[in-house]
Description:
With about 240 residues, this protein is an all-alpha fold. Helix content is about 65%, strand content about 0%.
Amino acid sequence: MVLLLFTLVKRNKKMDTQIPLNLLPHNDEAEKAVLGAMIRSNAILNEGISNLDTTDFYPANKNNRAIFSAMKRLFARNEKVDVQAIINELTNAKELEVAGGAEYLLELIDSVITFENIPAHIQMIKDQAILRSFLLTLGNIQKNYLEHDISNVNDFLTSSEHDISLVTERRNIAGFRSAKDVTASLYKQLEVLKVSDTDDTVTGIPTGFPRLNKYTHGFQPGNLVVLAARQATLLHISH
């Protein structure tokens, strides 16, 4: 009798097993900082394109998704990625209004105070995207249980484990990049350095020394920079 009652409840009771979109993990400020930094720095543009995908941005932030997608298309065509280029790309795709217009692009740039925390923000966006996917997968498994008869428990568990493993695999490979991505990123960096080689353009964080900026184009994300020189030479650089 108890088993029969449980079965009837299972079949007839409608349960919302999905977490509301606004409660899924996300960080709007981190997304804005990363996009703004990608517009301002070619080095961070490379890092963002290499480590993130459009779907890593919070689904409700259609503006951020549209802007990142536009930047990714420009990058793939080896075109300059700046505010005007992004506006043109969004206009051609009829997505400028969705992206928040030129005003939002300027807001993104103004949201960047320092490049120092951008790698951590990129990782945060990636981690939260994986966590969202994990939570939604769990909800789908529970929904499948509630709405369908489970005739074979082993098949149900195997299918559920497979769905979860697809999410956890993203976590395991998140720190790895394909040879294609590495090659494209390296090529882009070489192109930037080639163009910048004729002037003092800073593509990373300014060192504070004009002559050192000319040699390094600024400190680039992920670089370990070691300066070694005699004191007299080092003092000469600061002039």
